[in-house]
Amino acid sequence: LPVTGVIVRSSTNVNAGAKTRASAILHGVWILVFVLVAAPLLEMIPLSVLAGLLVFVGMNLVSPAHIKEMLHNREWPIYFTTLLGVVFLNLLEGVAIGVALAVIFLLRRLAKIHIDIEEQGEKWHARIEGSLTFLSVPTLTAKLGEIPPGVPVDIDLMVDFMDHAAFEALHSWRVIQEKSGGKVDLDELHEAWYESAEGGEPKKNRSRAPLNSRRTSEAAPVEG
Question: Which of 40, 84, 97, 114 has the most CB atoms around its CB within 10 Å?
């Protein structure tokens, strides 16, 4: 029950007529006053009555339209798992289960990467989509290893995130590939940005190439 005090900082507080943040502070003041002055009276209130009040307030916070929208969202298992945990266990355990499941979903998304490798005449083409993180480095290394050394390669980077470990893996493969005689072209990342990242000191105010951008040889220069 003490955790349910956060409800006063929700829309319920606003609907009750609160205008400023002072309402949340006054809530704490009133609790302190009643605990110090009228603790015996508070103990006479049945917990079932307080529970019923919390259920009523909580139901008013639920939006049917939001629930309907959640059914079409990939995160709906998190929503309903948290709900079931709160109902059948308690608030703390339900929220903890929901947070743990959300972390699992996040790690799964970060580890998910789609890489297509195909030969197009004398040049090989690699298309990388998803999030490039340390979790996807083994997959990235294995797929790029399918490309024969010494051949020119055109890489489409359609990624929404790339961490340092993934960049190092891609850069190491590129260095080895170019040393063997194969030219590597990056379609999304400008060469100026790549070189600054390689040096460990990215330039300030650099522009970022949009997804589906032109080849680096045709792209506009990067401001730095």
Answer: 97
Q: What is the number of H-type helices and E-type strands within the chain?
A: 10, 4
Query: Is the overall model pTM greater than 0.90, yes or no?
Result: no
- 198 Cβ neighbours under 8 A, 6+ residues apart: 171
* Range of the structural domain that residue 130 is part of: 112-198
100 and 68 in a common domain: yes
Domains: count for the chain: 3
> What is the rounded CA–CA span in Å between residue 186 and residue 139?
19
The SS3 call for residue 99 is helix
Spatial separation of the C-alpha atoms in residues 186 and 202, rounded to whole Å: 17
In terms of Cβ atoms closer than 10 Å to its own Cβ (0-12, 13-18, 19+), residue 118 is exposed
- Asked whether residue 36 is assigned to any structural domain, the reply reads yes
